[in-house]
Amino acid sequence: MTGEIFRKRLELLRALMKSSESDSLLISRCDNFAWLTLGARNYISLNSTEGVCSILVTKDRPVLLLDNIENDRILEEELSDEILSEMQICTYNWWDDLERILLSEFNVHSLISDSKNIGEVLSPVLLLPLRLQLCSEEIDTYREIGAICDSVLHEQILGISPDLTETVVQARVASAFIERGLEPVLVLVFGEESAQRYRHNLPREIEIGSKAFVSVCVRKKGLIASATRSVLFGQNRNYEELHKKVSRIDALAIANSIPGIKLDSLFDLIKREYATAGFPEEWKKHHQGGLAGYNAREVFANRYSNHVLKSGSAVAWNPTITGVKSEDTVVVTTEGAEIVTFPRSTFWPELEYEINNIVIRRPDIVVI
After folding, report:
1. Rounded to whole angstroms, how far apart are CA atoms 222 and 27?
2. Which of 174, 208, 228, 276 could lock onto 212 through a cystine, CB 3.0 to 4.6 A?
3. What three-state secondary structure class fits 109?
4. pTM of the prediction?
5. Domains of the chain with CATH codes
6. Closest CA to 209 of 159, 157, 169, 163
7. How far apart are the C-alpha atoms of 284 and 15, rounded to whole Å?
């Protein structure tokens, strides 16, 4: 099955080559490489945007280009036998020049590329739509990521206390994800003070205090899932009501994430719900999320976003009101939104909102 998907995706890339009047396309960006190969990692550093090996797409057989440093790992650990069987493999010495190899070994002259290092850069706008509709294998990967994400956040957040620092909480959460096979691309911890001050709080050496929430982006096979969970130490009715309001905004966005709707329409719905909740200006203080996939956000929703959701799209909404946030990753289907990072098997307490004649579940605050 992976071989068949790989071949279909090659044809999509060849169509781009044809429209660009080019005889070859070099795929080097980590997001595009992972999409083409259904999850292979061509990077070393977690924050890399361009990898250490590439795939040269031609009119004939594609070529896997990799240096002698990466050869064994890529061939043994990253690519399925089905996909490897579809490619010619070209291994070169790390001190050699890839551009020279492309000219001397493959007679590449009319080259387009997804990176600026070699060839004419292909506009990211042309490659982006290819990544936005997930196949069944990718949706299964998202379900796997989501189940682990939900489990780790439940275990770790229930184990924190007011005297822990944000950095200690960050370390515990990140470590737990790594132990479970997920890459923590982002772990933000918002303690009592930080949640009031910053929308993006890089954890600091301060105690979290009487309440906190943790926001994460975690990756496996190239796909990134996002989620946020909140904890309160002792009752605080005002805070709990505020969380319910932001969760309803999130629920409204999820309920309306259906095939055929445009991102700008969803953005307008979200803005109106902020006003209904009594916070008409809060949407201006942070983006609201959007399409997800091989980046934490592939496309942000705003008044100019004209992308149309399809069955197989992934979205992650993240409305915030100062001090609170609601966030999960959702796969859009014809049967409704599947919240992959908040599965029905969760042990986390739930809030329920009936919207458009369906019930949307959102994580409640854990009160300890």
Report:
1. 15
2. 208
3. coil
4. 0.97
5. 2-130 (3.40.350.10), 136-367 (3.90.230.10)
6. 163
7. 39
